[in-house]
Protein 1
Amino acid sequence: MRGSLPLLALCLVPALVAAPPKAVPHGLDLSGMDRSVAPGDDFFSYANGAWVKRTEIPADRGSYGVGREVADLTDRRTAALIQAAAASKAPAGSELRKIGDFYTSFMAEKAIDKKGLSPLRPTFQAIGAIQGRQDLARYLGTTLRADVDVLNATQYHTANFLGLWVAQDLDDPTRYAPFLLQGGLGLPERSYYLDPSEGMAAVRIQYTTHVAAMLKLAGLSNALERASAVVDLETRMAKAHLGREESGDVQKGNNHWTRAELTAKAPGLDWEAFFAAAGLTKSQVFVVWQPGAVTGLSALTAEVPLGVWRDYLTFHAIQHWAPVLPKAVADQSFAFYGKVLSGASKPLDRWKTGVALANQALGEAVGKAYVAKYFPPSEKARAERMVSNIKEAFRIRIEHLDWMSPATKAKALAKLDALKVGVGYPDRWRDYRGLKVTAGDAFGNLQRAERFEYERNLAKLGQPIDRTEWVMNPQLVNAVNLPVMNALNFPAAILQPPFFDPKRSMVMDYGAIGAVIGHEISHSFDDSGSLFDASGKLENWWTPEDLKHFQASADQLVRQFDAYEPFPGLHIKGRQTLGENIADVAGLAAAYDAYRLSLKGKEAPMVQGLTGDQQFFLSYAQSWREKTREPLLRQQILTDGHAPASFRPSTVRNLDAWYAAFGVKPGQTLYLAPADRVKIW
């Protein structure tokens, strides 16, 4: 996927949202290239160098690129749809009325300021009532939520003690299982607490200052002293946490613990009180994804003074709800998460946050309106044809693998045949009748929406697996592979120019959205996806010899990415990004084959003075056009399963056709001898 998922916004601001979008050029951006750079030395700069030099990252962003341009256009369109819903006077209780009331309530900033922190009073009272360890367990249980990102972390951040993920059981694909995930940290990842470097030490000082400022806003005295104790608690949590790379190991994460085993293996937390408060009284078995972390976090609930826990929970409560609290709280949240961690110099315009929150709360209701206006059936059909072509190209690649045994090939082909691909939007829309939205209650609306989503996930337990469910809204510029469901989602919003454009050469579409489609298909066969069979069961379907060959090729790709060094001494983590890198290599190769197959042996016509192969590879490189501020880029390298965007076009060095297309020669930086070019699928 282009972003990251764990295994896993009444016409109040027309001048802001009605600004006309930039004209999207139909074809390659030749003016954005830097032809002074040899493509064999730096293909990203060759394709995008002039654009990088002339482009400024917006003040409210930590990064900017073609994906953000498309997302901004989509957000403006979505905002207009939401405003129309607000102005429509739709019947009370209807989806359109809920969308409009949710958005306009959030946009009423003066009304939110007037309420102050009064919406948090019940929360603060509940925290103050924690006088014993069982009380603490009950309160922590009430904070358990479906493990999803609330908002882009450049603006806000939320951290619950544990996260819940309800998904198909890895051992039994006929049932849902509750997965427990490590949580509790206010900083992005454990290394932010434990890395002794000067830069990380400075971030920790600024974080402590931020925690103190939030505690002061919550009305607590001795805020700095109490903030230091909160950060110390989070540091102890971080020591228990697994790192990003370890957390991505599916086999290490598949730990089924009964309720009794949780009490025995993770003593400290009153698990029965925790689960009762979380609404999980009927679940008898949990998948504990990071067992060491769960054990360590549980122990801290018995060891750390209750006063520190109360301060910790107070901080995270005000931080969690910052988007719908007075401006002083939202500004303080941005001062750390936006400025310090991402390098942005101003917050997002309020309407943008409003769109993001509306998408979070009523995403498929908003998406239904979006696709009705912006995703015609003709584009859905065209995308489905491209998916079919790329799947066929992938099939041919599997059939012609000279290193894979017939038995493993048969399993791989069965998995490809069973792959469910959703294009544009789900087959069945989500039902929001149970979500209450009240005009003028921004805090309550967001709180109820979050609870609604949590209870929607809980309701899956004990029910048949729904293989039609989507995890992405149609108006999201992204795509995803769901290994446990053996399914893909390609939202409507990514199926638009410049990724997917009926007014340009078809070859360019194969290089851009075709590579994305190939990437997501390939995730079913990357280092994690290849562990699941056609039904989504975690099961080894490889012969020992085939698996050994696959792992050797994967190790070769790990070394290739380990060698990239965005900052002195800070390398890309080849193992951490392996799944995405495998999908890039295999997906680009499948998209290339599909483009060639679609021409039935003919050569693509010259367009913009470029051959078909040059169009294909340049389109791929320009689809990863992005600039990122240093703080955010460092955060991505430490925490993200994807390599930075500017390094992903270097994937081309593993495809033989790229060398011929651009005359790449030995001695150039990206040149790889044929034996060193990674060919996994």
Note: The longest strand covers residues 162-168.
Protein 2
Amino acid sequence: MNNNIVKIFDTTLRDGEQSPGASMNMEEKIQIAIQLQKLNVDIIEAGFAAASPGDFEAIENISKVIETSTVCSLARALGRDIKAAGDAIAFAKHKRIHTFIATSPIHMQYKLQMAPEQVIKKAVEAVSYAKTFTDDVEFSCEDAGRSELPFLKEILDAVIEAGATTLNIPDTVGYRMPEEMGALIKELHAFVKNRAILSVHCHNDLGLAVANSLACVQNGARQIECTINGLGERAGNAAMEEIVMTLKTRHDFFNGLDTNINTKEIYPASRLVANITGIVPQPNKAIVGKNAFAHESGIHQDGVLKHQETYEIMKAEDIGLTNANTIVLGKLSGRHAFKDKIQSLGYQLSEEELNQSFERFKLLADKKKEIFDDDLRAIITDEIVKIPQLYTLKNLQINDCMNGMPSAAVCIEYKEMQTTDAGIGNGTMDAIFKTIDRISMIKGELKDYKVTAVTKGKDALAKVTVKVTFDEALPSFTGHGLSIDTMVASAKAYISALNAYSFQKESMHKRDRGGI
């Protein structure tokens, strides 16, 4: 291994998905995995195979399409978890199993209820079993940030002997300061030497995940676990884009350390993840926030126009953000111009996806004076990640009477048959959702609703994201809807969640009958 290269272990599809509201369906996960490969991420942690049949299936399908990056599955130090992980990554060209067990006194006593020697035995058994599936095995000491150093050395020594090739030291609860994490890695690096690669996984509870990760790199860590846009549990993880661009921009400070990341794919990756999860980085977010390269102050504008480096330490083009919009799309634009533009945004569509996206663009262009890049991203993302459309919204008419009862008339197509019904509700959306329930004969309970404007202006596209429970035995399903009309977007989002639920139920029935 080149000791000047820091490996990027991206866990957007595993830890990132654990961020509240960030759940993704399989097609969405595959699209993100493909983008991570474009980024040239070293390792993609595609999920937690034992967590659910859906997670297993997503990891398996990602393993089939990824050619260059290593595909990894997380597994507890349990035989059934490790077998699920090994089976899920079986098709991967480059595969890794990432197994873990808690090592802090508080976790061992209260969570595991195990003695330290039992924990070491479990860890060794887990690594040894994982080695039967792949030579590339990573071991994590959960809550290493609050673990005792002598015990960390003891368990790391044991798992190295068992065959672990990467050792991950997580600050699981984001408790440590950069100086503390740096000192810990320095001590462990001197102990481990060249027997394994040291990795870190820092959480952002105190806003120090990136700083802690970089302090560890300075002291010998050569793998960083991170996520796109810093998604993750609680306050999130170290943000991949911040780590990569810090190492690139301050190459001098980090003594020539670098990553394998294709930085021009950073912005497209950030936007894809934001569109799919509905979690958009705050405007002042470093690197990928919409204001990261914006200048409003007259003094700043004057300086940048005279010489870019007066107020910019990196180039927007370096992360794939270009202001050179040479093609302005509108209702008179042709298919060739549309195709050229979406390719410049980083999308490769099939002919069918291209045709469908172009039709939706033309409809939008008839209603909007100006089409923005984010409009196109929203249309394309909505088109390429959608699951099979069992139910399709054909028409919607609402009556939001100020002094009367709000009502909605809805027409839905199911199995080539159209059904129209109308209903009243406590509000316009309630009337729409109740009518859809009656037509489909499937009752849903709305758990979360979010609407955002894709771009600026009165005619901006509305992107609606909902979470709906249709069956208490199953998790909530996420749906997305896109339209200039917020009520239409809401109806589409609710039907999208209904399709996700219906598709999963249909798949479960097929499995029960031995169909798949």
Note: The longest strand covers residues 391-399.
Protein 3
Amino acid sequence: MREKAIGKMVIIGIVIVIIIIAGVAGYYLTMPKTRLKDTLIMGTTDSVESCLDPARAYDFFGWEIIQSLGCGLVEYRAGATGSIDDIVPSLATSWDVSSDGLVWTFNLREGVKYDDGTEFNATHVKYTFDRGIGIADEDGPFVGIGYSDIIENVTVVSKYVVKFYLKIPFAAFLSLMACQASYIVDPKYAPIDSVVEYNATNPRASHPMGLGPYKLKSWTRVGGKDDEIRLEANPNYWNASGGYPKTKNIIIKMYADATALATAMNALEIDIAFRQLSATDINSMKTNTNLRVWEGTGAFIQYLVLQEKYAPFNETKIRQAIGAAINRTTIVQTVFLGQAQKLYSMIPIGMFSHTDAFQTLGDPNYTLTRELLSEFGYNEANKLSFKLWYESSGHYPQSPQQAQALEASLEASGVISVTLDSADWASYREKRRNEEMEAFILGWYPDYIDPDDYIYPFVHSSGGSWLHHNYNSTQMDELIAWARGNTSTTVRSNLYEDIQDLLVEDCPLVPLYQGSAYAVTKTNVKGIYLDITQSWRHWMVYAEE
């Protein structure tokens, strides 16, 4: 009898548990599910500089779109800090490197398809780099980064295995493979001997990729400047099963200036505002309960370029005098309200080998400025006069205010007279190419996370050719070559310290400040990562309805 009673109790217990589980499951099944918006609108003052071809595009916003339309062999994980461990698989599932650092082998992901259904394989990797090096242009990344100085050749081992044979054991090679210039192209859309340009009537013909989370649905330009770009989810994206992209449609609207962008964001006409909002508007938006301000790591730098082709900047001491007369505190505190850091090196703060090398010139040191200029006959009665250029179309944050702060800083020396001039970004770029500007302000976002990316593209005689500042130094080229070809972090750090010291001595460029990354969104927007890569990951952003 006792055993029967126990049996009944067990059965009753099981029934109760089943009823409870069924009830809980039923509750959750009937709960309203969180729905995500299928369309998000981003506002920006930025624009694609030239095209969406990885072999030629070399601007922040162009790369932002490229990384939504394409993929590389590897990528930096969201929230990256710059560590090599932050690099994760993308089109390659694994890789290894030879003991001498000269041979990299990548095992490719199988079953990946382009947006038109064509299967991706190792021949596309070889084609991409052969093409990029073959059509390299001085204004493009393959020259600016120096791919041909790094890569000897790319060899197809099998359908899903590819080898890179390098000329030097380039320490930043894996990081280079994560940058947008290394994104794989589809040979059907990427002619071997020419760049893919904007096509007003056919969005698919406007880019050569097709392996990314999005397809280019439309791209509207007015007068050479972007008006609107629409991205649509790519159903063939290799990570679609992982839930990406989170948002089906992204609409990017371009605004004339920071004021217009802020007005649209405050009115909640857009979901996201990114590049470029003024420091005043960012501070104001922090108190708006309808908005969220996102702040991230700043690897963006701004610097002053001095053209050595023409007098007076063909004289080293005059360039040093300009460097000594810059008041970075005014730029950081007055223009950016503390939302930036004073920068004394082309290598950003926080990156290994950074030193405050330019502090040796002062901040400012007007006594040094006057002493140096007096050697050339300049004084309060005979001032050094020149034109300082800045871009006027919102490509960089608060460019007019930056220029005005620099003008005031330089003229406070009492021996310098500055005239300001400006041009929209397209014209500014042409003036740089044509070497028409004697002194001008530029900015830089990282291609790959390594000191090399803040040195080689600026002061190496080959890599820095896109700047057209006519700086050439055999000593600098040798130091850079030694730093590029060494895998010891300690040795490289010492070499970059020497490079930074030589930059102060030669002064072809003067670092100004290092900016922070900001975005503003409606409060329901999530999935934003503003990390050291400065990459905007459209496919991870979403909003709850």
Note: Residues 1-6, 15-22, 24-32 have pLDDT under 50 and may be disordered.
